[in-house]
Structures are given as C-alpha cells and as structure tokens.
C-alpha cells in the first residue's frame, strides 16, 4: 500500500488519543475493543461483552496526559481491563503499571463481608507502547507477564496479568502475519499510512475499523480534535527520536573516552615496565625518572 500524501492520511491514526476513543471507545468502538482483547488473549479468555468504566489517573502528572491515554472496562465474567496507550518511555513505567493494578485490586476487595473473604476478580493491564521497553532485547514486541513460581516456572496466581505490545519492535512482513494479535499490531503501526484494508486482514474482525476510521467522514469539530491529538503524538515522536539520537551520541562519546583512557593506561603500564627493566640494569632512579617523565617515588616503588 502506498502512503497517502495527505498530511492527515486517509484513516485516523490509531496511536492517538482521538484514535483510541474513535476505534475503541464506548461510542461505537465496543466491537473493536472486544475483538482486540480476544485477539490478544487468543483463547486464554473469550470476551463476549464489555462495560466501560471511568478511567482514573491519580498520581499521573498533567503533562503526561498528552502521551498517555487509556480505557477501563469490565467483561461479562467480571474481569477488569486497563487498556493504555503510551507514547513515551516513562521513568518507573513498570512500577506505575503495578501501582495502577494494585490500586484497582484494593478497590475491588469485598467490603462488609463476614469471614474476611478476599476473593478477587481477574485484573489485567494491557499496554500499547510506542517505545522500546528493554533495549537489551530490542526484538521482543510482546510481553505476557504473570506471577510465577521461580522453581517450577508455573503461574502462581492466574488472576493478575500484564500484556504489553511494543510497537517499534514489531517489524513483520505481510507474509509473516498470521495471528490476530499480529494483525492488530500491524494496524497500530501502519493505520494512518494505508489507503485501503490489506487483504491479509480478516474483514469480519477489522471491517468496522476501516468503516469508522476514514478521516473524510470526520465532522469539523472532530477534525480539529484529531489534528490536535495527532500533533501531540508527533511531538512525542520527535521527543523520542531526539532522546534516541542523544543517547547514541552520548554512548559514542563515552566509548571514545573509554578508549582514550584504556590507551593511556596501557601506555603508562608499558612505561613503568620499561622503567623497571632499566632499574634492574642498574640505571639510577633519578635518571630513569627524568628520562621517562616519572617521579622518583614511582620508580622507587617498582619491583
């Protein structure tokens, strides 16, 4: 598919606040959100219906709202889902996801029951990340995290999970895309570049996405909201790329400086070795120090 030259593209970018609400929000996006979660859980859970609930952001700074946006909903079996799109890496990101789920679990503890029952519903954090989560494993685009026993590697508690999709690490070709999760990942990365629905996508699952996502169908007020949302996303992308560039430059400079220090240390070691040889040959300490630019104390310590 060739990229539409229009500044906004033919379809609304899924990785924007406006796009998340358009495609997955309560105003017509419920079928898409159900399909997305079912594709993500791939038979582990089957979600038939969802109820939207107010998303809360206690402890999140106002400036982060431009790069973090989310949805909170429950399924028919009373499972709870926090679905979050995040544009930029954030210090203590993992801590924050645990904090969000822990706070939700605390609210879900039954109150006023006799017998101190602590039975809880399932809670899941779904993160769609527009940054590399761990640069030591740059090709990992999917994290499926649960509480596990380290001895037998089995899940210890199966009612809390974290599923993270790392968009920059997803680089599959069309021929490699087989699962529904891969199809969703492809759309998150490329939706605004497309001119039509790719043939490898299942129309039953993704048809509604392309029906409601046309930029040309937006009202004037929605167009302004989308342009603002898209600007926030592109600003965040610029910040991310700048950080990567500066990080590479800093790494290069550190590498060069490390090389210089190693060369100096090697030269100093060679000089001291040569000085020791001269000392063993009976050359005076003062002459060795003067000829090699060492102190008398340095030469005296050589053995």
UniProtKB/TrEMBL annotation:
**Full protein name:** Rpn family recombination-promoting nuclease/putative transposase
Short name of one Pfam family for this protein? PDDEXK_2
What InterPro entries is this protein classified in?
RpnA (IPR010106)
């Amino acid at each position: 598919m060739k990229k539409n030259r229009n500044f906004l593209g033919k379809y609304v970018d899924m990785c924007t606040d406006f796009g998340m609400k358009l495609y997955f929000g309560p105003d017509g996006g419920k079928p898409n959100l159900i399909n997305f979660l079912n594709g993500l859980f791939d038979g582990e859970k089957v979600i038939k219906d969802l109820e939207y609930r107010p998303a809360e952001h206690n402890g999140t700074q106002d400036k982060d709202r431009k790069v973090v946006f989310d949805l909170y909903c429950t399924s028919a079996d009373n499972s709870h889902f926090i679905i979050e799109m995040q544009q930029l890496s954030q210090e203590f990101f993992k801590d924050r996801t645990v904090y969000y789920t822990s706070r939700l679990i605390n609210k879900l503890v039954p109150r006023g029951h006799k017998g101190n029952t602590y039975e809880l519903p399932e809670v899941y954090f779904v993160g769609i990340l527009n940054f590399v989560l761990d640069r030591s494993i740059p090709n990992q685009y999917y994290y499926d995290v649960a509480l596990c026993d380290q001895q037998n590697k089995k899940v210890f508690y199966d009612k809390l999970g974290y599923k993270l999709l790392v968009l920059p690490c997803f680089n599959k070709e069309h021929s490699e895309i087989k699962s529904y999760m891969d199809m969703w990942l492809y759309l998150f990365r490329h939706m605004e570049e497309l001119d039509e629905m790719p043939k490898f996508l299942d129309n039953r699952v993704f048809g509604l996405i392309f029906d409601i996502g046309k930029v040309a169908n937006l009202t004037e007020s929605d167009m302004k909201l989308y342009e603002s949302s898209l600007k926030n996303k592109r600003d965040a992308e610029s910040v991310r790329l700048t950080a990567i560039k500066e990080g590479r430059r800093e790494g290069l400079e550190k590498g060069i400086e490390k090389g210089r220090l190693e060369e100096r240390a090697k030269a100093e070691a060679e000089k001291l070795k040569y000085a020791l040889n001269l000392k063993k040959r009976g050359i005076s300490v003062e002459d060795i120090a003067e000829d090699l630019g060492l102190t008398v104390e340095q030469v005296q310590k050589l053995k």
